[in-house]
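So, is this right?
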Amino acid sequence: MSLPLLPTSLVGSYAQPEWLIDRAKLAGRFPPRVRAKELWRIPPEHLAEAQDDATVVAIRLQEEAGLDILTDGEIRRESYSNHFATALEGVDIDNPGTALDRSGHPNPVPRIVGPISRPHAVQVADLEFLRAHTDRTIKITVPGPFTMSQQAQNDHYPDAEAAAMGYAAAVNAEIKDLFAAGADVVQIDEPYLQARPDAPARTAWRR
């Protein structure tokens, strides 16, 4: 499908419905960096099906709004970053560490305890579901390596730059898989580049 000169798309996530996620619990805490399964209203055995249903609704509402590039709404995520970050090896999410968020508040975060690696594609299934439910141009988002390195406690790498490089390799592999699976656009979310511009972030983008 050809796009207009200035195509429209969601930049962040679509609002998850109240029947799916407990908004009061979500509003009363910082965005989770480790898993936060208590936020979901649906029992675990039915959660994936409910997330699929809510994703279809998000897709249809984007189509009705006339957006040119559609996303899955990030409906399956408890936050924009933890869906990917907690799927990696080399991190301990059961015994979290602490890191300051962008506003300077301490937050439970994954602890890096070994080399960061991606054991399998994390979001390809989400992309394939999106592709199966629309014929429009599609986009999927992944958290950036610098942001994830700032949302973790580094107990393995010699410095923050080395940790960001570990995350960069995982993100690089994920993006290649997403394009191979049919993504038209992959958006990299790097809000910590804005929040901490003086940190050694640029090295993570050389690969």
Remarks:
- The CA atoms of residues 51 and 135 lie 20 Å apart.
- Residues 44-65 form the longest helix (22 residues).
- Residues 23-205 form a domain with the TIM Barrel fold (CATH 3.20.20.210).
- The chain is about 35% helix and 20% strand.
